[in-house]
Design goal:
This protein has about 325 residues and is an alpha+beta fold. It has five helices and 14 strands. The protein has helices at about 1-30, 75-100, 105-140, 145-175, 175-200, and strands spanning about 35-45, 50-55, 65, 70-75, 205, 210-215, 225, 230-245, 260-265, 270-280, 290, 300, 300-310, 320-325.
Length: about 325
């Protein structure tokens, strides 16, 4: 009978000891930390191909922009001057091409004709003079030196008349086909130079090429913007993913195309599904970790990218993503 009275007490003591032992083990047993990653999104830099001074910035951080929406403008007096020079060069080249196609003016042709006729008249006169002097030389009246001088003068004037005739024919015929083609090509080259400068000038008004949200405005009105410097950055919250650094002993859970659930503490206690889209080894050897004793290799870390399955309301870049181990 005495044992029956002690049995409940022993039972209570055993239950209490078991309860204490359970919570003691639970308290001191290492808890597996969840695998932590973060949300990233596609980011675009809005920049200009030309350098200049910022005229206006038309957006602020947090603004939503659409494709084709004007973001900022530049002021570049140097570019304006280059455009004036290029257009003047184009006008000059086109004028030369037109001149080559039309040939010499009527007045120039008439002047060349008159010079030829004048030279031809002089040639006729020197020929008659030489004939007279030659007759006198044959009669023994004139010295041979005088005859030779008259002959040389006749030949010189005759060649001058021939050259004047050729100049008249060139003026009448106009430019050669090669000269016309060269002039036309120079006009095209000048037009190309104008088009190039106009393209640069058009790039002083910069529009967003993507839909997204302004994440940063790096320069303000009045500041100098170097060529290609990102003045505004835009993130596309429609193209987001989570990034994790996973040791290779856990990598089998994250094969490309596999799915898993994760929590996003910033959005509450809900769970969300992700699908692995990319796996790549990290190149930094500082992420290597020693394995437990008895293994003859060190574990590397891999970068795993996973995209959410479906839209997650309120998701922002930088939010933590937790995956239970």
């Amino acid at each position: 009978m005495r044992y029956l009275k002690i049995l409940p007490i022993l039972l209570v003591i055993a239950v209490g000891a078991g309860w204490l032992l359970f919570f003691f083990i639970k308290a001191y047993r290492p808890v597996a930390e969840p695998l932590q990653g973060q949300i990233e999104a596609q980011q675009y830099a809005v920049a200009s191909k030309v350098a200049g001074r910022i005229d206006r910035v038309l957006v602020r951080k947090g603004d939503t922009v659409k494709r084709g929406q004007l973001v900022f403008t530049l002021a570049s007096p140097e570019l304006d001057a280059r455009l004036v020079q290029a257009r003047a060069g184009q006008d000059a080249a086109e004028a030369l091409a037109a001149q080559a196609n039309k040939g010499a003016r009527r007045q120039q042709v008439e002047a060349a004709r008159d010079q030829w006729q004048q030279a031809q008249a002089a040639a006729d006169l020197t020929a008659k003079t030489f004939a007279r002097l030659d007759a006198l030389y044959r009669d023994g009246v004139l010295a041979e030196q005088k005859r030779d001088e008259a002959y040389a003068q006749m030949q010189g004037v005759r060649h001058a008349a021939a050259a004047a005739r050729q100049m008249f024919l060139m003026a009448e015929e106009g430019s050669r086909a090669e000269e016309k083609a060269a002039a036309a090509d120079k006009a095209k080259m000048a037009a190309g130079a104008v088009a190039e400068v106009e393209a640069f000038a058009a790039d002083t008004s910069i529009a967003s090429r993507f839909d997204g949200e302004v994440s940063q405005v790096l320069l303000q009105s009045g500041e100098l913007a170097p060529q290609g410097f990102p003045v505004v950055t835009v993130i596309d919250m429609g193209d987001v993913w989570a990034v994790f650094d996973v040791r290779e002993d856990e990598l089998q859970r994250f094969a490309r195309g596999s799915e898993f659930t994760a929590r996003i503490p910033a959005l509450g206690d809900g769970v969300y599904r992700f699908r692995v889209s990319h796996v790549a080894v990290l190149g930094d050897f500082a992420v290597w970790r020693s394995t437990q004793s008895g293994r003859d290799f060190d574990m590397r870390s891999f970068e795993v990218e996973a995209r959410p399955i479906g839209t997650i309301a309120g998701l922002r870049v930088g939010m933590s993503v937790l995956v239970a181990r």
